[in-house]
Every structure is written in C-alpha cells, then in structure tokens.
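Final report, Chapter 2: Outcomes

The project's central promise was a pipeline that accepts a single protein chain and returns its three-dimensional structure in a standardized token representation, suitable for archiving and comparison. That pipeline is now operational. To close this chapter, we reproduce one record exactly as it appears in the project archive, with the input sequence first and the structure output second.
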Amino acid sequence: MIDWLTPAVPLFKAAHIIALVVWCGGLLALPLMLTRHDPAISVQDYRTIRTASHLTYTLFVTPAAVIAVIAGTWLIFLHEVYAPWMFAKLAFVAALVMAHAWIGHILAKIGEEPSEHRPPSAWLPIGLALAPMLAILTLVLAKPVLDWVAFPDWLTEPRSGQLFFDTPRR
C-alpha cells in the first residue's frame, strides 16, 4: 500500500460509497422521470420535466459515476485487490456504465425529438441497471473465490514495469 495515502483510505471509501448511492439511485430514478416525458402535456410542464431530468443526469448522476469509478480505482490499488472476484466486478461495472450511457442516449433523443421519440417502459432501463448493481453488490459482499475461472497471466501478474507503488508478489 502507498504509505503516505494510507490515512486517506477511509476518505476514498466514503467518496466511493456516497457516489455509488447517488449514481445507482439516479439510474433507478431517471427511467421513472423519462416516463413523464409525454408530448400530450402542456409545454410548460414538458419543459419542467425535461429540465429536471436533464439536470439530474448531467449535474448529479454522471459526476457521481465518475467519482465512484475514480475512487474505486484508487481503492483497488491501495488495497492491492487483484482477485478474480474483482475482475468480475469490473465487468459488471462496465455493464452499469453501458446502462448509464443508454439512459443518457434516451434522454438526449427525447430532448432533440420530443414529438417523435418515446421513452421505453421504465422497467427495461431499470432492469438493465439493476442487474449489474445486484451482481456488483453480491460480488463485493461475498468475495467468492472463483478458482474455476482461468485468467491469463498478464491479467493476474505484474508486468515487470516500475510503478510508483508496491505491487503484491505471487
């Protein structure tokens, strides 16, 4: 572990957890907000809903996602977690990022073409976001061994490059 950063580990964990709560909560709330985008409502109501959903995505959910990923990456290196469950978790984080991008795409399409584009049922984006969330939570809490998964050496062993921190030896 990087000795001078050891006291900052609780701060990284707090930032990671707080950002995850905002990110995941936003990804579950935004599809519900998107269902309110109905061209049949008044222009003022539509503008209010559009502004609220856009600001939620751009000012809260996306920055929280960036903070969660950055803080989580630092925690991987600070705790030297190079276990198979962590690689599986990162795959589900990538799936969560894809759900985030898809919800943003829907939001942008509704803003560009309000009368032509209808959002999908809220259950589809909620399900696509909730599945990796639950998988990540399960992997983090259970930390399964996953010895049956064969990872290539380049993924589990340091590549002899000099880093500015110590890496575990196997």
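Archive annotation: Residues 43-79 form the longest helix (37 residues).
This record, like all others produced under the grant, will remain available to the consortium after the project formally closes.
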